Amino acid sequence: MSRSVLVTGGNRGIGRAIAEAFLAQGDAVAVTSRSGDAPEGAFAVPCEVTDPESVEAAFAAVEAHQGPVEILVANAGITRDTLVLRMTEDDWASVIDTNLSGSFRVAKRAAKGMLRLRRGRIIFISSVVGLLGSPGQVNYAASKAGLVGMARSLARELGSRSITANVVAPGFIETDMTAVLPEEQQAAYKDQIPLGRMGSTEEIASAVTWLAADNTGYVTGAVIPVDGGLGMGH
């Protein structure tokens, strides 16, 4: 049966690949974005995850279009990379508010409908950086690490209603952002990865759809690394 799926930041990169993977399975997929762009077949909803009223309006639109959200993928995120002594209050606050607080806002709103349904899947897109740390990314790493605590707390809080909460932690993935990096920098990254290559957005999407499958309902509070072995042990 077709399920109601919402992917935040689903207009490009990893989020777009996730939305396309659910569409390929026949699910009803909505994506939020600032641009209004969406994969073919998806329902595009404008949403600013830093604004609670915008989040409420987006969920109302999705519910009117395809019913209550059964699967939420909290993927929307930004970076403001710089060394800590140069990091401004705004650099810190904007990343935390979008990546961490934004995920809280959409998860809280999705949980409202899932509790009524007595089922649901919440999947946060974190990063290997949130587990390993990275110079110049104190704000980003903190925001992505926070998703682990959020997911595990939600797993305990909502589990009795058959709602799972999990985290997918991508490593270095081939996207438009990594494609513009100098070749020597890309080679340096690959040298750190046991598999010796960057991952694909489709490989992240496969982990997400697996967590949302009917036969993985007993997996909750988990962190699934999809990083070529870069962050093993975490």
TrEMBL record:
Active site residues of this protein: Y140
Superkingdom of origin: Bacteria
SMART domains: PKS_KR
Catalysed conversion reaction: a (3R)-hydroxyacyl-[ACP] + NADP(+) = a 3-oxoacyl-[ACP] + NADPH + H(+)
Residues bound to NADP(+): G9, G10, N11, R12, N75, Y140, A141, A142, S143, K144, I173
Keywords: Fatty acid biosynthesis, Fatty acid metabolism, Lipid biosynthesis, Lipid metabolism, NADP, Oxidoreductase
Ketoreductase domain segment(s): 3-176
One GO biological process term: fatty acid elongation
GO molecular function, one term: NAD binding
Pathway annotation from the record: Lipid metabolism; fatty acid biosynthesis
Keyword Lipid biosynthesis: yes
EC code(s) of this entry: 1.1.1.100
Xref: PANTHER family: 3-OXOACYL-[ACYL-CARRIER-PROTEIN] REDUCTASE FABG, SHORT-CHAIN DEHYDROGENASES/REDUCTASES FAMILY MEMBER
Function: Catalyzes the NADPH-dependent reduction of beta-ketoacyl-ACP substrates to beta-hydroxyacyl-ACP products, the first reductive step in the elongation cycle of fatty acid biosynthesis.
Family the entry assigns: Belongs to the short-chain dehydrogenases/reductases (SDR) family.
Quaternary structure annotation from Swiss-Prot or TrEMBL: Homotetramer.
Official protein name in the record: 3-oxoacyl-[acyl-carrier-protein] reductase
Source organism (scientific name): Nocardioides marmoriginsengisoli
Record lineage: Bacteria, Bacillati, Actinomycetota, Actinomycetes, Propionibacteriales
